[in-house]
Structure formats: C-alpha cells, structure tokens
Amino acid sequence: MEVQKTALYNYHKTLGAKFVPFAGYEMPIQYKEGIVKEHISTRSHAGFFDVSHMGQFFLEGDNTLVEALEKIIPADLKNLKINHSKYSFLLNKEGGIIDDLIITRTEKGFCIILNAACKENDIKQISRFLTNNHKHLLNNNLSLIALQGPKSVEILEKLIPGVTNLKFMTGNNFDYEGEKLYITRSGYTGEDGFEISISNKKVEKLIDYLISNKVKPIGLGARDTLRLEAGLCLYGHDLNEKINPVEANLKWAIAKKRKEVGGFNGWEKIKDLLANGSEKIRVGIKPDGKVIARENTKIFSSDNNEIGFVTSGTFGPSVNAPVAMGYVKSEFSEIGTFIQLEVRGKKYGGKISELPFYKKSYVK
Amino acid sequence: MSEKKFSKKHEWVSLDGDVATVGITKHATEMLGDIVFVEVPDAGKAVEKEGQAAVVESTKAASDVYSPISGEITEGNKSIADDPGSVNTDPEGASWFFKLKIKDKGEYDSLMSKDEYDKFCKENPS
After folding, report:
1. Is A292 within 8 Å of B34 when comparing Cβ atoms?
2. Does residue A346 belong to any structural domain of this protein?
3. Same-domain pairing of A41 and A145
4. Which domain holds residue A153?
5. Residue B59 C-alpha, separation from nearest chain A C-alpha, in angstroms
6. Per the CB < 8 Å rule, is A35 touching B34?
7. Average pLDDT in the A61-89 region?
8. B33 vs A contacts (CB less than 8 Å)
9. pLDDT for res B124
10. Final residue of a domain: which of A193, A214, A229?
C-alpha cells in the first residue's frame, strides 16, 4: 500500500517535522524542539496536532440507524442529544474492543472519529449492521486538527466567536472563511481544547493563524506522553480485540441503560464480567526512581510471581517521573500495591497508581 | 587528554594514559531526542569492545551504549544517572558515561577521527 500523507504534509516539513510511518501515513513524530518541550508547551499554553489520519465517518439515516449502531456500540445513542459526543467502542461478539472512538450525534445522523489503523476494518464491521436506508461516508476531504491546552479557548474564540460556549464533549457548526466547520470541545491530552473538522483546502490558513498565536505544532511523540499522563488508552497497545471494556477499566463508558438491557455484541460476556469482575484489569503504574517500564515489560508481585504486563510506558514530563499502564491480575489492582517491573533482566520496584497521573482541566 | 576518537555506534573516546573516557556523541543525542533515563556501569565490570556497557533512554525508545574499546570500568558517571537531561546539553563534555582501564591501545587507534566520523554521519543519515 502506498504511504498516505495528510493535507498538511508539506506544511509539517516547513515546520521541521521528523516523520515516521504510522498506520499507513507519514506522520510527524516531533518537530525541532523535541517531545518534552512540545509536551510542556501544550500543558502551559496550547499546541496543535494534525490528526487528519483519523477517520471522520459520517452516517445518515432514519430511526433504524440508531438501532443498527447500538448493536455494535454500547453507548446510549437513542438518548444522545444532537451535538453531544460520547467516548465508546466497537465491540466484537466476544465483547473484545475492535476500536475505541468518539461518536457525535449530528442533525442527520452521527459522526464517528475512528483510529487511523482501524478505520477500514471498522467501517466493514459497522456496515454489517447497516441497510439501504443508511448512508455512510468516510470523508477524506476533511482534515482534523486538535487544539489543546489552557490557552486554546482564548485563541480560537478570537478567530471563531462562540466556541467558548461549547461544553466538554459537545460540538457545533461554525462559520469560517465562507465555509462551515464542525468543532467539538474535546481532545486526548487531559487539557481543555477543541477538535476542528475543516476542509483540506482551508486547513493551512487555520494553522497559519494558530502559529501566529504562538501555538506550537505537536507530534505523535508528545501526543503519546500527554495521553498517557491523562490515563487515556492507545488502541493497539492498551486496547485490542482480545480485551473487553471491563478488563480495560472502561466500564464507565458503557451507558447505564445499556448495561441493564444489553442488546449489543458481546453482551453475554460483558454482563457476566460486570457481575463477577474480570481476571485481569488495566491499572496505572508508577515505577520507583527513574526506570522506564515500556510496553511488554513483565510485572511481578512482591513474592516474584508473574502477574501481568505493561502496555504503555514512558517518561511523563509534567509528572516529572516515569509512568505506565498495564494489565495485572485483579487481586493486585488496588492502588498502592507494591509490584516489580522486569527491565533488561533486572527487577525494579513500583506501585499501582491512580489514573490519571496528571489532573485534567476540562470545561464542564 | 588525547584527541577524541569516534565509533560507528556514535560513541566517543578520549584517552588519558591507559584510562579511556567514553560518552555518546552530539549527533547521537540529536537522534535520540530528550534523554530521560541513563544507566551507567559499576566500577570493576569488564567490558568487551562493542559490548553493551550502559543504557540511554529518550522519550521515544531505549538504546544500549556500547564500549568502543575493551577494558575494566573504573567509574560510571553517576551525575548523568541523576540528571539524564544533562546528556542533551553537554554530551561530549561533562556528560561522559564511563571511564575504563584499557588493555589494547590499538583498539583506540583504529577508531574514526572527528573528520572521518562527521563524514560517516553524513553518509549514514538515520
């Protein structure tokens, strides 16, 4: 498959981006200043992220569309108000997570933001439940820009009046340069911010404005350290098709009503897990000292029994310490439990930690 | 102190009598990015030429640091283990990794000069 590029590829180059292949795209891993500075400037001012590789999947249809989607997505879509968003997932028949996503109700149906690496399969899986009454489109003419950080609102408001009124996990249409933009107050960094869906033709102009307001470009490297500090999962690492939402400690994302009534893929399995708990569960981990426990690091109990593995681990620049997430046997999941992490053949101490590592500041 | 010599794995070595000082090059730190963890060897450890001797981790990944020269470690630089970020600021000076007592000066002589190393980096961008 040919390597794909986002509409901002050449712009990234002029900003000094270092590229890596990611989910079939050439994406910036970092820019000139490096991951730590990008991370800190997002938390202290604002940063923008080109996340146009993610799928912007639009669905239209009558009432049967809600029923169709609810078979694979365990959110309460029936009661989701127009312009409101939910974090949810696509589930397989065993209750495993095919992808995690943000779904927003639009006037004509729904918009789902899908992970780049999963989007083609996601659409295949969703399409199984759709009929001729439902239209769908993966819109590749749109870019997606995440603007994140405490100054985001002030900066975007000057350009697009009214965005201040958006509450976290809601969106709306706004006018910009003679076209309609769809903006949601959301993101994946633990900071206040927005995701802006904008045509490929206008996106450079938006970025010009952001840069003139000292918003730094942020690559995938800092996106990873930011989301991990915020305790958020990365699909393909912390989540996959063999992990279900109960194990992933994401049962909060299954709507209360859906937990009671079910009617979605994997419900039997998930019902059982909700009642009886799962054998393993996702936890936050803080290694002692400076050692970094990366993905696949084995986790041992204090009496040297293997109890789990790390799925994401890095140095958290705002926490100023290493942070990690992983799966452990449920009996070892209590906050403060002493564990050992095997790094390069040597065991280092650590503790099960609360998530997030870094406190959020969403506008509710 | 002798002139610095360089390895293909981006370490530098300087020699003072039979004690060599080893660190990673500025070019290496630029490729690695922000350094957040360093592990240096303890005194007394024997290392082989091109054998693993230390560890350096950036926000992106962990990498081994090899010794370009064989010998016995006399000192690991604890100050860079305490402040890994200092490797980014002064990689070819105060932020050396370890010192070792060498056995064979021939190994040092066979390493690249500064000019040869610069040329090597240009021809092998990564």
Report:
1. no
2. yes
3. yes
4. 9-52+140-229
5. 6
6. yes
7. 97
8. 30, 34-35, 221
9. 85
10. A229
Query: Are A283 and A149 found together in one domain?
Result: no
Ranges of each domain in chain B: 5-105
Is A158 domain-assigned?
yes
Count of domains for chain A: 2
A222 and A292 belong to one structural domain = no
Contact (CB<8Å) A292/B60: no
Q: Cβ distance B12 to B118 under 8 Å?
A: no
Mean pLDDT of A256-277: 96
ipTM: 0.82
CA distances from B112 to A68, A322, B13, B68, B118 (A): 66, 36, 10, 11, 9
Beta-carbon separation of B37 and A30 below 8 A = no
Which pLDDT score is estimated for A360?
Answer: 64
Q: Is residue A266 in some structural domain?
A: no
Q: Which of B37, B60, B61 sits opposite A291 (nearest CB)?
A: B37
Does the pLDDT of residue B50 top 70, yes or no?
yes
> Please, what sign has the CA dihedral across residues A65, A67, A71, A77?
positive
Q: What is the CATH number of the domain that holds A45?
A: 3.30.1360.120
Return the minimum-mean-pLDDT range out of A211-215, A226-230, A299-303, B120-124.
B120-124
Q: Are A142 and A197 in contact (CB under 8 A)?
A: yes
- Let me know if residue A193 belongs to a domain: yes
Amino acid (1-letter code) at residue A131: T
- Does the beta carbon of A313 lie under 8 angstroms from any beta carbon of chain B? no
Residues of B within 8 A of A29 (CB-CB) are: 60
> How close A23 gets to chain B, by Cα (Å)?
17
pTM tops 0.90: yes
pLDDT at A91 > cutoff 60: yes
- pLDDT above 90 covers a percentage of chain A that reads 97
Mean pLDDT along residues A203-218: 98
Best residue in B30, B32, B34 for a mutation probing chain A (most A CBs within 10 Å): B34
The arrangement of secondary structure in B5-105, i.e. its CATH architecture, is: Beta Barrel (2.40)
Say whether pLDDT at B14 is over 90: yes
Exposure letters A338-360 (e unless 16+ CB within 10 A, then b):
ebbbbbeeeebebebbebbbbee
Model confidence at B112: pLDDT above 70? yes
CATH of the domain at A302: 2.40.30.110
